[in-house]
Amino acid sequence: MLKTVEWEDDAVVMIDQRRLPAEEVYVRCRDHHEVAAAIKDMAIRGAPAIGVAAALGIALGVRKSASEGQQLRREFDAICEDLRVTRPTAVNLFWAIERMRLAFEAAATKGGAGLREALLDEAQRIHADDIAACRSIGDFGAALITRPSRVLTHCNAGALATAGYGTALGVIRSAARDGNITGVIADETRPYLQGARLTAWELMHDGIPTTLIADNMAGHMMATGQVDLVVVGADRIAGNGDVANKIGTYSLGVLARENGVPFYVAAPVSTFDLSIASGAEIPIEERAAEEVTHHGGRRLAAEGVNVRNPAFDVTPHRFVTAIVCERGIARPPYTESLKRMAQAGDAR
User: Fold this and answer.
1) Cβ contact 29:140 at 8 Å
2) Which of 59, 242, 262, 344 is most enclosed, with most CB atoms within 10 A?
3) How far is residue 23's CA from residue 60's CA, in Å, rounded to a whole number?
């Protein structure tokens, strides 16, 4: 299994996704500032992976501090804030930071090495929990694919977007294990090309037959009967089931509905944000114009042209056939089913 991010010798080590697929290079972050920079600059990306990296970054930051007592608490708060502001859309980031805050409060009286070990233990639990969640998502999702099928996916919701195994690609991996994947169609995912650079690389790494298409070819593939289902990941899911995911996902939801193709979302419960009623409340990150105007350092667009680069869009819940999480499959009405899934974990 690909190792996206892990703790190694008092450092957070992650595969540099900006260099894939040409080079498999690892970034070694020796303080929390370097972890924050890696998240912001997309050396690591994908909502669950960002959450795991942030948790490990917090543990690293506290271990690097020589302070104790109230001064350490102030430094801890500053570390959390440095990581919080890196990416605004993926709710897993804020969920992981909150888990680390709770761990800090629970172990604050220990001080010293005890507190630092408690924070590292919690970060490593978040890492392990994410891998376990992805495997459960994969198995629940595979149960929806009961015959050999051609699946279309968008962006990268694989091992590279998580601590391992993946969400949408976890579903594909588990279904392939069961003999029910005849091929995967991967959207290239403009402008950052996560589908072309990352998803195609992951699936070929696993020996799963993969066809790469430009984003604007997806409608044709559905209309001509070449897609049996769509499965994507998510960066935040509102209480009503609206889904924020990589820009272009909304178009796929509309196209899937028009062509009678099931549209599934695969994401852990940590992606649920039941504090917001709908996707209208989800902040959408805008990224640098150069991601649109340039490729490989070379300008492709006219000098001086105005650019918009929203990194995410929101797919309304009415286009979502089902949401697969580690606790099962949520179906409409999502205001009820998502709450049941979240409460199932609380009850434990």
Assistant:
1) no
2) 59
3) 27
When divided into structural domains, the chain yields a total of 2
pLDDT tens-digit profile of 272-308? 999 999 999 999 999 999 999 998 889 999 999 999 9
At 34, which CATH number? 1.20.120.420
Instruction: Give the CATH number for residue 328.
Output: 3.40.50.10470
Catalytic residues, by residue number, are: 235
Distance CA(138)–CA(148), nearest Å, equals 16
Nearest to 34 by CA among 6, 57, 4: 57
Spatial separation of the C-alpha atoms in residues 99 and 244, rounded to whole Å: 22
Cβ proximity of 335 and 239 under 8 Å = yes
Both 274 and 314 in one domain: the answer is yes
323 neighbors 254 (Cβ within 8 angstroms): no
- What pLDDT digit, counting tens, does each position of 171-223 carry? 999 999 999 999 999 999 999 999 999 999 999 999 999 999 999 999 999 99
Q: List the one residue out of 174, 127, 134 whose CA is nearest residue 157.
A: 134
Reduced to 3 states (helix: H, G, I; strand: E, B; else coil), residue 21 is coil
Find residue 263's DSSP bridge partners.
Answer: 230
Residues 242/245/249/250 CA torsion (nearest 10 deg): 30
Query: Do 220 and 129 reside in the same domain of the chain?
Result: no
Residues 182 and 205 in one domain: yes
Query: Residue 309 corresponds to which amino acid?
Result: N
Q: Which domain holds residue 79?
A: 5-135
